[in-house]
User: Fold this.
Amino acid sequence: MDSMEKRLEKLEYYQALLLQMVDTKRFPFYQLVMEKGLCKTEIEEIDKLCYELNSLYEEQKTQGLVIFTDLLTRFAGSLNSRLEVEETIQALYKQNLYPLLMADFLELMKSSY
Assistant:
């Protein structure tokens, strides 16, 4: 039987091949986190962060707010250090995860340039 190292190496190689097969247009966020080597807990932390920010976003929109710089700042400050803010927002938006929040984040970032 193969040693654990050889089996792990094979799985990592297969994962790399599968990443190349993934339709990046449909699942850009999943591809991004796999490429960056994030573990399940780290991905769940991002989802929790986005869920919380999305709830605050909806609450603030209901109150009539239209600028969400505070939420973007919190997102950027809490994001895993292996991920770039703009790249992550783009990937989340393209994968249709928290689309309204991510669209406003993208607009904020575009207007700040």
